Amino acid sequence: MAPGTAETVAAFNEAFGRHDVDAVMALMTDDCIFENTLPVPDGEKVVGQTAMRAFWDRFFNDSPTARFETEEMVVAGDRATVRWRFDWGSGHVRGIDLFKVRNGKVAEKLSYVKG
Predict the structure, then answer these.
(1) Which residues contact 97 (CB under 8 A, 6 or more apart)?
(2) 3-state DSSP helix/strand/coil percent for the chain, to nearest 5?
(3) CB of 73 within 8 A of CB of 10?
(4) pLDDT confidence of residue 89
(5) Which parts of the chain fold into alpha helices (H)?
(6) How many CB atoms lie within 10 A of CB 4?
(7) Alpha carbon of residue 1 to chain centroid
(8) 110: left (phi over 0), alpha (psi -120 to 50) or beta
(9) Is 64 helix (H, G, I), strand (E, B) or coil?
(10) Residues 110, 97 contacting (CB under 8 angstroms)
(11) What is the 3-state secondary structure (H, E, C) of 15-30?
(12) Largest CB tally within 10 Å, which of 26, 65, 70, 82?
């Protein structure tokens, strides 16, 4: 049996916090969709394992000391909303991610940031 939404998203966020691209990708579906917070106003849309792995490799390489902290998670069925704080040393942002989980993996991660 696949893990539930809360367990899947918690495992994803923990792997993200470790900058562990292999673990992050193991928790994403083959047809995963990610919407980044940048560039404004709508953000970049990344689709599929190959493009997603390239994005995470760049992202973690460009921010090697960054820290991700989950502040709150609300789960409703196959959906989760995560309120977070992302620190990179000289600053931080706060935002939310809207997740959709399918069969124990993240199918969508739509990110939004304050201001």
Answers:
(1) 80, 81, 82, 84, 109, 110, 111, 112
(2) 30, 45, 30
(3) yes
(4) 86
(5) 5-17, 21-26, 49-62
(6) 15
(7) 23
(8) beta
(9) coil
(10) yes
(11) HHHCCCHHHHHHCEEE
(12) 82
Whole-number Å distance between alpha carbons of 43 and 20:
23
How many structural domains are present in the chain?
A: 1
Residue 95's SS3 state is strand
**Quick one: DSSP state of residue 71?**
E
Closest CA to 70 of 82, 78, 58: 82
Place of tokens 């990110």: 111
Contacts of 34 (CB under 8 A, 6+ apart): 45, 46, 47, 52, 55, 108, 109, 110, 111
Tens of pLDDT, residue by residue over 9-52, are: 999 999 999 999 999 999 999 999 999 999 999 999 999 999 99
CATH number, domain at 58?
Answer: 3.10.450.50
- Whole-Å CA distances, 42 to 18, 35, 50: 27, 8, 22
3-state secondary structure at position 115: coil
